[in-house]
């Protein structure tokens, strides 16, 4: 498999190099910009991973430009505030780019032909326990009747947004039944978080990407925002003013972080202790995965990391 950078120059995907920690990479001074995933790399949604805060601080002393790139349904400012609340020094980051932010911008501007054709009334699948996501300022009308909907906005997997602004808690199965009705009406879906699952408090939580994959299998049209799409990497490169050859993406998802980096033509570091920990037979934080197991999993997902590390530690 060959990825392509934004200058259309091919990159060669070589066998990965296993490392013990981030220090080995930092000391090469090879990369000017680091694009960091948050869930599964820096924290688990509730607590920072051991050593993550200090590793960021040490990495910053090498003059690296760090950007959070996240498949979060939420706006970039919310992501930065979340990191601050967990004890991270957010001044170390140039900024954050989330799939939720990209979705908001495209729905607001509608300068992309696909979004320009999108209607204004939507079925809104959102969060409940995690907090519903507001559509305020986008000029959208939330409806709970599929016959009135022009598209589906998938922000979460726990609730159905109501015209009143409230959210009605729903099980995944019930949301999928609504999708069956939407397919029959042939309306498109915008998914603001392409992840299938994410790490949360050491467990895995189902993400909107699962709904989007189901909708595609049913025959529905889906606009995927965020990783592994190139747009989020291109936005990050523009934010720091660094070419693809001088960037590295760090993430825990082969099918999102690593595959996206491959497509964008940039190097990548795969953190094995995140969403793939169970598949790799890892039972505790910092445990090293067997190289042959990583290789087999990379081949399964057709996503090939440059480096492999057990965790984001120095």
TrEMBL record:
<dbReference type="InterPro" id="IPR036412">
    <property type="entry name" value="HAD-like_sf"/>
</dbReference>
<dbReference type="InterPro" id="IPR006357">
    <property type="entry name" value="HAD-SF_hydro_IIA"/>
</dbReference>
<protein>
    <submittedName>
        <fullName>Haloacid dehalogenase-like hydrolase (HAD) superfamily protein</fullName>
    </submittedName>
</protein>
<dbReference type="InterPro" id="IPR006356">
    <property type="entry name" value="HAD-SF_hydro_IIA_hyp3"/>
</dbReference>
<dbReference type="Pfam" id="PF13344">
    <property type="entry name" value="Hydrolase_6"/>
</dbReference>
<dbReference type="Pfam" id="PF13242">
    <property type="entry name" value="Hydrolase_like"/>
</dbReference>
<dbReference type="InterPro" id="IPR023214">
    <property type="entry name" value="HAD_sf"/>
</dbReference>
